[in-house]
Amino acid sequence: MAIDPIRRRPPLIFFFLFLFIGIWSPVESNYIAYNTTQRIVPDKLNVHLVAHTHDDVGWLKTVDQYYVGSNNSIQGACVQNVLDSMVTALLADKNRRFIYVEMAFFQRWWRQQNDAIKKIVKELVSSGQLEFINGGMCMHDEAAVHYIDMIDQTTLGHRFVKKEFGQTPRIGWQIDPFGHSAVQAYLLSAEVGFDALYFSRIDYQDREKRKDLKSLEVVWRGSKTLGSSADIFTGIFPKNYEPPPGDFYFEVNDKSPVIQDDVLLFDYNVEERVNDFVAAAIAQANVTRTNHIMFTMGTDFKYQYATSWFRQLDKFIHYVNKDGRVNALYSTPSIYTDAKYAANESWPLKTDDFFPYADDPNAYWTGYFTSRPALKGYVRTMSAYYLAARQLEFLKGRNSSGPTTDSLADALAIAQHHDAVTGTEKQHVANDYAKRLSIGYAEAEKLVESSLACLTSPDSKSGCYKPVVKFKQCPLLNISYCPPSELDLSTGKSLVVLVYNSLGWKREDVIRIPVISESVVVHDYEGREIESQLLPLTNASVYIRNHYVKAYLGISPSVKPKFWLAFPVSVPPLGFNTYFVSNSKQTGASMSSLCSSQGSKSSSIEIGQGHLKLLYNVDERKLSHYFNTRNLVKANVEQSYSFYAGYDKNGTDLQASGAYIFHPNGSFPIKPEGQVPLMILQGPILDEVHEQINPWIYQVTRVYKGKEHTEVEFTVGPIPVDDGIGKEVVTQLTTTMKTNKTFYTDSSGRDFIKRIRDYRSDWELQVNQPVAGNYYPINLGIYMEDNSTELSVLVDRSVGGTSILDGQIELMLHRRLLHDDGRGVAEALNETICINDKCEGLTVQGKFYFRIDPLGEGAKWRRSFGQEIYSPLLLAFSEQDGGNWTSSHIPNFSAMDSYSLPDNVALITLQALEDGSVLLRLAHLYEVGEDKDLSTMAYVELKKMFPDKKVSTITEMNLSANQGRATMEKKRLKWKAEGSTGSGTVVRGGPVDDTKLVVELGPMEIRTFLIKFEYIFFPKMGQP
Ligand SMILES: [Zn+2]
């Protein structure tokens, strides 16, 4: 913040002021008792001073560096100083108030405090001087996060606040994330029980219009399905989350003029500073409804010496109220919210969301939707693993001494921060997030292994005393590295493959594992041979495998697998099935037939052994047609790659493309170089088409016999930048569909929102960036429709995507850029991977999936398969040396026996808590009107879901499980929206009857329960 250097007081005025005050009250030159007791005054403009600090849970420094205040040459920031000094500052005056937001920091501090300080802080909290706001572990991002992760990290923070302080945060405070999702509004705010949500970053054009119309404060209806029942009062700050314009920064080194009110000293400035304050208040009042405005007094990592701020705030309150033109008071977002509510106004209604965000005509913050795609993929993979690991922890019984999922929970929570999964942190901080995830995974992996050992053990029902079997897992299976499966079977050993399904439905899928021999056969646990297929490992896969194993693990694998072995599996809900791979002498896995487009005599090649067929044009070596023999959907579909050149800082426009901002300087098609033919592998389970798009893009397209979608696995990198041009790599699926500028993208992995190119529903959009300004975040998928079909694309991690041309969908897959975009991170987004100081650009491998359905039938696939993508099957490996596994182990298991959840319900949390209770969350997956059969009330029978347990108590909770649902409903403020005609017909499930134990879920409803099960005894023989 620049300070105006010519701020000087005219000496004459100073002289008179001195005389006047000096004569009037000579006593005040010694001690001034500042009156800070002011409360709301009904007939005045009330200026709510909210003292706050915004503490990023990692950004330029790691979370721990920020906490302890190390690495200060990067940024002088120490959260420990903030929290220490806050206590003394609050004790000095009981009218002072402070809010604290990020529980990841607060927890670190809390466990280091002695009992005396803890007692004091608890008193500060219960008196309301210190208030927890938002209260999740971090202030999560809203674009690159999945709603399940948002729920988990909020729950973790909220339960900590509840346990230590008995408090339930009332206010959502997403002041810094770069755009805001509908899911944040209705789910992570209204359903959590918040009374209001505040933030600052919305499109600059939107903000200007809202200031004109005084519509910065709105009632936000984020869910079409839940309607007004999930409305949230939402306040958008007029500028940012800092103090108002006019020099009100009071950190020790800040340059704003402090109030000098000692008449015996020079530079007395009370009147001038009071005038500055009143002017700022009036300016803000001019864009705000009601006579309440909020000054956010603080910003990033402020209050490291809290007294420095509070001293000034005391004086402002004292002198401004003496002046009397406006009323200034210590406040919090809760007090402010209550004042707004008491005004009994109707507020403008806002629907949909606040994406994309631009702070300048050429600065769309849509690059971060894809930045650091490997980290985004890792977060998603770990999120799924966390979900499955908690289930297994529950099924085995939570053990206080053994490994837990707690450190993975912490690492994942922190990774949802708005400078973590977003990819907008410095490289060393990104490494820190990955390290935390890896450590958390390692512990959870042990838990999973011991749980599976227990569940496969015949004595598992009686408490699993001595499981002996050892299971191993393969976190690098995606790059074909899996030592347990690369076993030499010729000695007579067989590989045991346990497949765990964390979904509440039975699942049919195809798994693939690397093997070293072509003489293999797969059996199920009943000894039946399972059809299987071998696909040779390509040179491209072998290179990635060797290079990245060396880089990540520091080893060069000695065994060289030659094939992928693919076979279909069928796994019961919330359970596992076991398969056996052994040496075969005669029958066994089918070798894929291999052909090349080069030798083909016909002009096209068809792939697909089931209903779905893809046709490739041989001359052009590319996909041309899609058809489904079951539903007769036919379409011309082409796929292409291109890159956007990132703007550098040269020329007239200084806005570079960077970690946050996507600012393309032209689009360039990527054409296959030379005449590299398509390689086609075909077999009984699946067909694959391998394409070397160019030297740094490799793609495999898969069509499975039993599936009606296409799977595309891309390997992009190292993106060359020797030409000095940063590149953002995209792929397009192009059809002849007439889509009329319209497409749909998900909101944080949940609701789909209609997007219209070059259009915003809230204002007349001035289009400056026809590409970047039409990008949206995608966590689940994107689809478009015409009058007969719909094309859906689903993703395996968060990416950016759009439809720039009618009939076309585009995804951004990877970015490598050479300039910083000037939003604070001060680093170019140029990820590399190094072996012995030799570095190259990071290669990213990922998948997307597409399918075309008759109009109105796509939702089933998007929802069901979307859940399968989110929760992949968990594979664990063991081996046996002859003998019969099935006679000594349980080979097939479902925690739900023969029960299955309805097709429209997903189990999103099943977790044994420390206190012995169980957290259960069920989510209806469909919006109202989304599917003719499945957008209906769903019923889950808990007795069947937990067949061997007896529910002793069940309590419905709010979303973050820190208060009873009924209490929350009763407390939560109901706001009035302009032009809204009441609640409409919202379908929600009724209360759960203790004896029937059936949970009803209306469309899009997520219900959270705390359950206590009766302890079931297994008396030993001979006991009574
Ligand atoms: Zn921030």
Structural notes for this entry:
This protein is of the alpha+beta class and 1024 residues long. The strands form twelve sheets. It has a ten-stranded antiparallel β-sheet with strand order 22-28-29-30-31-42-37-36-33-34. Strands 23, 24, 25, 26, 27, 32, 35, 38 and 39 form a nine-stranded antiparallel β-sheet that branches. Strands 14, 16, 17, 20, 43 and 44 form a six-stranded antiparallel β-sheet that branches. The longest helix is centred in the middle third of the chain and has 29 residues, at 427-455. α6 (147-165) crosses α13, α9 (270-285) packs across α10 (306-323) and α12 runs parallel beside α14. It is globular, with a radius of gyration of 30 Å. It starts with 10 loop residues before the first helix and ends in a 10-residue tail after the last strand. It is built from 19 helices and 51 strands. The model is unreliable at 1-27 and 1017-1024 (pLDDT under 50). A hairpin with a 5-residue loop joins β38 and β39. Among the domains are: 46-134 and 169-354, Glycoside hydrolase 38, N terminal domain (7-stranded beta/alpha barrel, Alpha-Beta Barrel); 897-974 and 986-1023, Immunoglobulin-like (Sandwich), CATH 2.60.40.1360. Residues 363-437 form the Glycoside hydrolase family 38 central domain. It catalyses: Hydrolysis of terminal, non-reducing alpha-D-mannose residues in alpha-D-mannosides. One of its GO terms (molecular function) is carbohydrate binding.
